[in-house]
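Standup notes
- DV: blocked on the single-chain target, sequence here:
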Amino acid sequence: MSRVTRIKGFADMFPPESDVFTRMQDCARAVFSRYGFMELRTPVLEFAELFSRSIGSETDVVQKEMYTFSDRKGRSLSLRPEATAGVMRAFLDASLFSREPVSRLFTMGPMFRYERPQLGRMRQFHQINCECLGSDSPVADAELIAMLLLFLADLGVKDLTLKINSLGCAECRPRYRAALAAYLAQVDQSTLCADCGRRVLTNPLRVLDCKHPACKALTAQAPKILDCQCPDCGRHFDAVLAFLRVQDVGFEQDHRLMRGLDYYCRTTFEVVSGAIGAQAAVAGGGRYDGLVKTLGGPDIPGVGFACGMERLAFLLDKKQRLRPDFYLLALDATVQLQVFVLGQKLRAAGLSGLLNFTPAGFKSLMRQAGRSGARYCLIIGQNETAAGLVTVKNMNNGVQNAMPEADVFHFLQAGIFHD
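- DV (later): unblocked, structure below
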């Protein structure tokens, strides 16, 4: 019988890659909690209508990329292609809008899109999302961006560029859409890529965001959306930029920046890196003031971002693996029970570690300890047992100490603290 293999576009993740994801998640929880954000966990499966209503029925995501199927009752269900719509649905189901003026929520987990697997984007990919619901103030936009940049800085990511634009609102964006459509109608559209050839009629704003060289050249002289904005949107965007400047946050205004989902309005932004090729965006988001109402709720404003964990992982040091505190060696079967009990005591006290299950030669056991990445190797054999001692070896510098078992925990704790 042939072996079953993994599905194309879906990846298994072992250390050190899984360690990097854990580090990202731990850092996100630490930073976001400083801003009052709370973690929300939503299902990976939703009614397909949720995404067609929120993302937009003419978007590439809904048209070509969603995993959609019927269940046994004939209901159309989809694996979530993005997180924001599910957060909005949960926000409405729980009536959070009636309990607090502003809700600050973050989520982490897998998303699913049927598209060509590429560097940093698989068919199952992972995102960290933050959503701030209830305020239309430019302060909320600027604070969210500042939080994102602090998160990336705490991870140690450098050489990033913040790109920002404003998409206007339901009042002024139709004017820009008409101006852009008129411009595109006058140029030679035969050089557009296949996707943009369709977008000219269905979603012309997305033509500006295309990375295809011919499409970029064709739209180089296209009208700019900021020139068509109403006074309210202009003031809002100017205020966002002012709050960023007062924090010394560098940014580039990019009139091509549109994002791929229809629910965005006003502020939109991306954080990009030059270190991961054409798919340069590691995070992006913006304001979506009409989204909650679109889904049947009250007219509540919101702003948020999504951070692609696979792309971000390319920028992180994978050598920073999660190291066990100790590797506990039983040199022969006569001390196995003693080693087992000591290992349990150290773990119960808050340390992490491994122990060998079967005795082997000393050199082989030390190789096992080295491969584990443990900070310390604890060695117990018949000689140690007879003397009532444990040999403790620092795996960083090779220094060994023999000490009573009762002293091991405090010795390890002090050494790990000074690492």
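- Follow-up: The longest helix spans residues 17-34.
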